[in-house]
């Protein structure tokens, strides 16, 4: 069953009249992970933000975004707000931008949970603590009393994943969630995504430049170039039998890069 079906999505800039997403159609199966790959500027983030209807107001969009059969493109902003977080949850590149810098993270977490659940403060803290421990964050109480700038990028990403564990969304959209992290934190955050996938039955849309990670985490891959989907298929198909020249190029150059990286790190290629 498809949890999300995007049909004929078009996004354009009303000022420049540039077509950013030309005519995209794809689906996400329940419980599966779809990776979106493609060069910088190909339209990966705009596609994901269009699903959540979070693009800036100068970008207009048309088409159908069917979430469990309901067209998100036709909901009012108020109706959609109820779905963001609880049904569709977005984890961004930079954890710092997701948190309010003026309050400790516990306040932000409680405010988010209060929008969706009737839990009292104690119930919220118990659930958040257990979720934070499950993503290997030690001392959750201490962390909840810190401001975002007092925590590392990797910790903030893991707090976002812990929040997703508590919210139990149907779909998590992760837009290059490890780009801003150092190699060790990247590895830890990816491990948490894989464990999240295994524990929860949620679906994931995962944008990444790292084809090594995509190969590890995704069931299906969608390749974008200049606002078009040039290829889609299962991860095995795309990596072993790419049809489009651009995908072949991407797979050969990116895997060569990651093999080189492994060699530098002293690992087998
Ligand atoms: N608010 C905006 N107004 C106008 N153009 C935009 C806006 N946001 C994105 N774009 C343009 O849309 C195109 C696609 O951008 P997008 O951020 O989706 O690329 P991307 O594939 O996610 O790239 P990256 O991998 O670098 O994040 C780019 O040409 C970008 O300049």
Automatic annotation (TrEMBL):
<dbReference type="InterPro" id="IPR003439">
    <property type="entry name" value="ABC_transporter-like_ATP-bd"/>
</dbReference>
<keyword id="KW-0067">ATP-binding</keyword>
<feature type="domain" description="ABC transporter">
    <location>
        <begin position="6"/>
        <end position="251"/>
    </location>
</feature>
<keyword id="KW-0472">Membrane</keyword>
<dbReference type="Pfam" id="PF00005">
    <property type="entry name" value="ABC_tran"/>
</dbReference>
<dbReference type="InterPro" id="IPR017871">
    <property type="entry name" value="ABC_transporter-like_CS"/>
</dbReference>
<dbReference type="InterPro" id="IPR050388">
    <property type="entry name" value="ABC_Ni/Peptide_Import"/>
</dbReference>
<keyword id="KW-1003">Cell membrane</keyword>
<protein>
    <submittedName>
        <fullName>Nickel import ATP-binding protein NikD</fullName>
    </submittedName>
</protein>
<keyword id="KW-0547">Nucleotide-binding</keyword>
<dbReference type="InterPro" id="IPR003593">
    <property type="entry name" value="AAA+_ATPase"/>
</dbReference>
<dbReference type="GO" id="GO:0005524">
    <property type="term" value="F:ATP binding"/>
</dbReference>
<comment type="similarity">
    <text>Belongs to the ABC transporter superfamily.</text>
</comment>
<dbReference type="InterPro" id="IPR027417">
    <property type="entry name" value="P-loop_NTPase"/>
</dbReference>
<keyword id="KW-0813">Transport</keyword>
């Amino acid at each position: 069953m498809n949890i999300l079906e995007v049909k004929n999505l078009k996004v354009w800039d009303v000022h420049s009249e540039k077509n950013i997403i030309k005519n995209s159609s794809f689906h996400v199966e329940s419980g599966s992970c779809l990776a979106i790959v493609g060069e910088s500027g190909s339209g990966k983030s705009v596609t994901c933000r269009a699903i959540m209807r979070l693009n800036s107001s100068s970008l207009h969009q048309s088409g159908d975004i069917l979430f469990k059969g309901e067209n998100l493109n036709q909901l009012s902003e108020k109706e959609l707000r109820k779905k963001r977080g609880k049904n569709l949850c977005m984890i961004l590149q930079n954890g710092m931008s997701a948190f309010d810098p003026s309050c400790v993270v516990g306040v932000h977490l409680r405010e988010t949970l209060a929008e969706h659940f009737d839990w009292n403060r104690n119930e919220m803290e118990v659930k958040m603590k257990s979720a934070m421990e499950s993503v290997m964050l030690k001392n959750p109480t201490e962390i909840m009393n810190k401001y975002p700038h007092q925590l590392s990028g990797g910790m903030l990403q893991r707090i976002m994943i812990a929040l997703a564990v508590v919210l139990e969304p149907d779909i998590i959209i992760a837009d290059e969630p490890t780009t801003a992290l150092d190699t060790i934190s990247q590895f830890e955050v990816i491990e948490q995504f894989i464990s999240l996938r295994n524990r929860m039955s949620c679906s994931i849309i995962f944008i990444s430049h790292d084809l090594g990670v995509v190969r590890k985490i995704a069931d299906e891959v969608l390749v974008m170039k200049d606002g078009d989907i040039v290829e889609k298929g299962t991860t095995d198909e795309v990596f072993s039998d790419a049809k489009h020249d651009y995908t072949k190029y991407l797979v050969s150059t990116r895997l060569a890069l990651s093999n080189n990286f492994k060699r530098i790190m002293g690992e087998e290629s």
